[in-house]
């Protein structure tokens, strides 16, 4: 029974192909098992399709001058440069290399265990080689294993065979080239090979066979004990001059196999199991070193996935690592973030099958991020916020910027704060804790009004009665008489948790500022829900700013931005600083953050020329799609990947910060087309960070807009509301009119 991986398997994910597939072999089973699965595709525009037909093509690709991004070391144990000679250009993957090993330039070593004294030449490929540590059998004869330049060697387990068979040939040998027509073995013509080794033609090929004689069907590779195979192998490769009398009869009298027979007899199950166990051992060694000597800088969840492939002891290894965690945290408590340490324990608990304990510990991860964020805003702030509102000890945290109690003759005060929304061009995610607490962040964004007005605002008024009255724009009201009742964690469905959190971060409650007077707080946001324009954070900034103005606190933009960062952690939504920065600072700005206590924010306003303003007014378009999706779940997934030190995520966010710097230069040069290109790349990176940030509807809109645009993206970090599109149209294309016309003609799109 045959099945096509190109047609049949893929057709199972395409509903329109199901009727056709059901008539194919295994078609019914494929439809039943895979037909209900959802597939998500991502077009990697910068990738090219590569197909390797030969070993030499693989090496050519890895050693090409434009292969700067080739990963040359992965999941491997390699000795120090002072006790080995491993070329920098060699590629070593899933290998354990002992001291005293030499590997030549541009060679590829994969899934192997190379013992001391082995020498591998340049431009060679070794796959699955496992030379035992105890090589006394070879040392007794003063023989070291050697593989010449431009050779391939691999070990293969065969069905019904205890020993793995060692197979080898020249990198440029074509197994199907006939004996008399350019046929070679180990880079030499067959005639020379047989002459040098004393081998007869009938030793390799049966005289009764009608097959054309070639390397493919030559009975060449002996099945012997491991070290005998190594010795005979080096003899066949021409490395044992003058020893034909010893090796020739050993080779002739041994059972031998051809490449053709070998490919029909490979024990794939044994090969896969051996490879999995080997990689699990390597992963365990790396994880142990990371815990014992390092700062948990590796993705332990990924390493655990490798370790759990080990047939019998994978879970036990993970349990041993889990037992090391308390000591690690104790030793590194001053420099290792608790959020990272807790996340490692969560991953190890899951690897050990302790799902309930892992779930319980997850709360500590997010609580630690909130505490670390609060501490980065102001020393001691984190512990202060998490204490009970009625605690007397909180008085020690008095902020000198506050004027103190409002317990004095009543005087009506009213503060109104109105703010714009923000459109981010590039850099989102680099502003989000814990990234921004540990690494520099860069964001390029712009404040915009909607239909000529500032859509987000609050009015804070003092009242002559106790308590706080909160009124939102849907006319919902909440009266809080006992302010000591306000304490995190807040219910995710609480519509007033934003204002409650603002009362906490401004320290109005803890400082006992409201003794005989009260507050009336009204909020509004005339922005479509889930627009991705930073509405929640900007509204929080407005409320915080209003409260600080009422009590005479520090209402500077930088202080407000940092307080909102803490506020969002208290709310449980998370989030970074870019939204509030985008709303409270006018115009276009490039903002950087630097880790420390306090977290430093530097805002660089871009003085927009009249030419740039004209171009943006003409070509910048923001479209609300009506697609609503909340950000915090997406944010949690991205934060989780960062806590795990996911390499792809880290490199993607680093690239976003670089793009923000490039975008700043583009705007300073009034190059709106370049800004569009940057937005396109940012959109692709956001799709890597969050594969669910788009949907079919949004993709259709972008497909329609693509011919008319220099660039586009969802506003926000890609996981925000997801409802707003930002597009940079091409010059004089009248995009707005085209979209309106298109929607009228095709309302379903």
UniProtKB/TrEMBL annotation:
It holds the Pfam family Fucose_pyrophosphorylase. One of its GO terms (biological process) is GDP-L-fucose salvage. InterPro entries: GDP_fucose_pyrophosphorylase, GHMP_Kinase-Related, GHMP_kinase_C_sf, GHMP_kinase_N_dom, Ribosomal_Su5_D2-typ_SF, Trimer_LpxA-like_sf. Residues 2-225 form the GDP-fucose pyrophosphorylase domain. The keyword Phosphoprotein does not apply. GO terms for molecular function: ATP binding; fucokinase activity. The keyword Kinase applies. This is GHMP kinase N-terminal domain-containing protein. PANTHER family: L-FUCOSE KINASE. Residues 508-585 form the GHMP kinase N-terminal domain. Keywords: ATP-binding, Kinase, Nucleotide-binding, Transferase.
């Amino acid at each position: 029974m045959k099945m096509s991986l190109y047609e049949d398997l893929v057709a199972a994910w395409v509903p329109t192909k199901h009727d056709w597939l059901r008539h194919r072999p295994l078609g019914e089973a494929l439809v039943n098992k895979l037909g209900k699965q959802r597939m998500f595709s991502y077009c990697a525009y910068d990738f090219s399709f590569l197909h390797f037909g030969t070993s030499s093509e693989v090496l050519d690709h890895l050693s090409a001058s434009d292969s700067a991004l080739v990963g040359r070391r992965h999941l491997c144990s390699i000795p120090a440069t002072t006790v080995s000679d491993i070329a920098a250009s060699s590629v070593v993957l899933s290998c354990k290399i002992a001291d005293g090993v030499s590997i030549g330039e541009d060679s590829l070593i994969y899934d192997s265990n190379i013992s001391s004294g082995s020498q591998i030449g340049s431009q060679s490929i070794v796959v699955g080689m496992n030379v035992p540590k105890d090589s006394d059998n070879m040392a007794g004869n003063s023989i070291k294993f050697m593989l010449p330049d431009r050779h391939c060697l691999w070990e293969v387990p065969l069905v019904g065979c205890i020993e793995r068979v060692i197979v080898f040939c020249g990198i440029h040998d074509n197994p199907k080239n006939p004996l008399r027509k350019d046929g070679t073995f180990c880079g030499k013509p067959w005639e020379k090979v047989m002459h040098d080794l004393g081998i007869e033609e009938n030793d390799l090929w049966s005289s009764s066979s009608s097959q054309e004689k070639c390397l493919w069907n030559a009975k060449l590779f002996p099945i012997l004990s491991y070290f005998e195979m190594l010795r005979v192998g080096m003899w066949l490769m021409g490395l044992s001059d003058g020893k034909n009398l010893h090796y020739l009869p050993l080779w002739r009298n041994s059972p031998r196999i051809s490449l053709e027979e070998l490919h029909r007899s490979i024990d794939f199950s044994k090969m896969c199991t051996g490879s999995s166990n080997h990689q699990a051992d390597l992963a365990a060694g790396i994880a142990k070193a990371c815990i014992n000597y390092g700062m948990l800088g590796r993705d332990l969840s990924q390493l655990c996935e490798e370790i759990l492939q080990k047939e019998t002891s994978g879970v036990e290894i993970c349990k041993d690592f889990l037992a090391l965690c308390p000591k690690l945290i104790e030793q590194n408590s001053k420099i290792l973030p608790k959020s990272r340490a807790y996340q490692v324990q969560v991953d190890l608990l899951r690897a050990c099958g302790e799902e309930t304990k892992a779930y319980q510990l997850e709360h500590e991860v997010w609580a630690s991020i909130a505490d670390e964020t609060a501490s980065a805003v102001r020393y001691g702030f984190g512990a202060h916020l998490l204490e009970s509102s009625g605690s007397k000890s909180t008085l020690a945290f008095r902020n000198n910027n506050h004027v103190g109690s409002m317990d004095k003759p009543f005087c009506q005060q009213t503060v109104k704060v109105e703010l714009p929304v923000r459109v981010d061009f590039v850099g989102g995610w680099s502003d989000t804790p814990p990234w921004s607490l540990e690494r520099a962040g860069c964001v390029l964004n712009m404040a915009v009004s909607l239909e000529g007005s500032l859509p987000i605002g609050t009015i804070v008024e003092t009242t002559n009665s106790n308590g706080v009255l909160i009124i939102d724009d849907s006319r919902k009201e909440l009266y809080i008489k006992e302010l000591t009742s306000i304490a995190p964690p807040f219910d995710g469905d609480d519509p007033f948790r934003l204002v409650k959190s603002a009362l906490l971060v401004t320290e109005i409650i803890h400082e006992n500022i409201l003794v005989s007077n009260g507050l009336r707080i009204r909020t509004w946001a005339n922005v479509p829900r889930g627009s991705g324009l930073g509405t929640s954070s900007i509204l929080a900034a407005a409320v915080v700013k209003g409260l600080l103005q009422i009590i005479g606190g520090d209402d500077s933009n930088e202080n407000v931005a940092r307080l909102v960062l803490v506020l969002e952690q208290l709310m449980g939504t998370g989030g970074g600083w870019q939204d509030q920065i985008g709303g409270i600072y006018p115009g276009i700005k490039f903002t950087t953050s630097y880790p420390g206590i306090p977290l430093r924010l530097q805002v660089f306003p871009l003085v927009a020329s009249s030419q740039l303003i004209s171009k943006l007014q003409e070509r910048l378009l923001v479209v609300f799609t009506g697609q609503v999706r909340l950000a915090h779940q997406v944010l949690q997934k991205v934060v989780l990947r960062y806590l795990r030190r996911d390499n792809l995520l880290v490199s993607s966010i680093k690239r976003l910060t670089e793009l923000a710097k490039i975008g700043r230069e583009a705007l300073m040069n009034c190059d709106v087309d370049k800004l569009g290109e940057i937005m396109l790349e940012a959109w692709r990176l956001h799709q890597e960070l969050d594969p669910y940030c788009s949907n079919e509807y949004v993709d259709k809109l972008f497909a329609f807009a693509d011919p008319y645009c220099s660039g586009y993206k969802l506003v926000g970090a890609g996981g925000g509301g997801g409802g707003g599109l930002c597009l940079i149209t091409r010059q004089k294309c009248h995009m707005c009119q085209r979209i309106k016309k298109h929607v009228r003609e095709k309302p379903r799109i």
